[in-house]
Amino acid sequence: MKAAAKLMKVFITRRIPQEGMKILAAAEGCEVSQWDSDEPVPRSELLKGVQGAHGLLCLLSDKIDQEVLDAAGPNLKVISTMSVGFDHLVLSEIKKRGIRVGYTPDVLTDATAELTVALLLATSRRLPEGVEEVKSGGWSSWKPLWLCGYGLSGSTVGIIGLGRIGMAIAQRLLPFGVKRLLYSGRTAKSYAAEVNGEFVPLDTLTSESDFIVVSCSLTPETQGLCDKAFFSKMKKNAIFINSSRGAVVNQEDLYDALSSGQIAAAGLDVTTPEPLPTNHPLLTLKNCVVLPHIGSATYSTRGVMSALAAQNLLGGLQGSDMPSELTL
Ligand code: NDP
Ligand code: DGY
């Protein structure tokens, strides 16, 4: 007689695109429970839902710390996050417990780079202000200096963190006529030659760039990297763009830099906290464009992320290869 496959309990912290759900539904021996909502799972429900789970599929808005791991208990073999960022996972504790981690690199690189370029152009060419003026009747005539901004042609662009997404941003910006492409990070990258990237100290990047794009991961080293000292080194007509994580930026210092004219403008796809409260000072500034963390938000990208997160989860549950396993 064939032994029945051991039932694996899986908890999913949110509604996710059907691509991933179909994969899990077709998997043998998988008992799936889910926080069946488009809104984040309340902490108490997360702690309840994860109890006894062998697998956890989570999102970047779920803090997976010691408390969650304790609530899950010793069954937990795999955590699969539907994101490339993993700063919401307490990796030291996860590693100590021998739990494997899956994430979703590469599949969202193009979408995120595209959005970052859109945000850069929207900020530097003042698109939200222009749209608002059209709607509110502020458009009285064509005026020589009205709603002027800054162009990329002939400019110097500085990328903080020339990883997968940073590189894809550089590739998309170069055809606009960018003259110099600077980047900073922990180590020089051989592939930077493809975009004529110059590896420079952060101070050089900050003081010489007309556009600064932050695309690094959030680590203890990058937390608060863009602070008062950083903004004070930027050119007065420079534009600051962040599509990595909000915590890389000290938002009070950014507000001061923007409101005092220390820098020209900022575009943020990520903030602290998320969502940014509607009464936040940054939202009162015309020279600050804030988007609601939509870097990877294309239908197809989110579908592929969901499928990859499900495949990672199954690999971890079955003790086999995961398509994208994070090396701990
Ligand atoms: P990668 O790991 O490919 O790139 C991360 C880069 O960060 C690496 O090049 C790394 O450089 C750099 N980095 C690490 N430490 C520092 C440092 N101290 N100073 C400067 N650079 C540093 O990841 P991805 O490109 O795939 O993703 C990057 C981040 O983008 C994710 O971690 C996530 O937070 C964010 N993201 C945001 C999205 C959005 O919707 N807005 C969508 C997707 C991702 P080195 O190798 O030298 O350490
Ligand atoms: C990530 O994957 O880390 C993004 O922030 C959302 O796609």
TrEMBL record:
Domain of life: Eukaryota
One Pfam assignment: 2-Hacid_dh_C
Keywords for the protein's UniProt record, in alphabetical order: Oxidoreductase
GO molecular function: glyoxylate reductase (NADPH) activity; hydroxypyruvate reductase (NADH) activity; NAD binding
InterPro entries listed in its UniProt record: D-isomer_2-hydroxyacid_DH, D-isomer_2_OHA_DH_cat_dom, D-isomer_DH_CS, D-isomer_DH_NAD-bd, NAD(P)-bd_dom_sf
Gene3D superfamilies assigned to the protein according to its UniProt record, in alphabetical order: NAD(P)-binding Rossmann-like Domain
Any single GO CC term annotated in Swiss-Prot or TrEMBL for this entry: cytosol
Residue span(s) of domain D-isomer specific 2-hydroxyacid dehydrogenase NAD-binding: 117-295
Domain D-isomer specific 2-hydroxyacid dehydrogenase catalytic: 10-325
Protein family per UniProt: Belongs to the D-isomer specific 2-hydroxyacid dehydrogenase family.
Name of the protein described by the UniProt record: Glyoxylate reductase/hydroxypyruvate reductase
Native species: Oryzias latipes
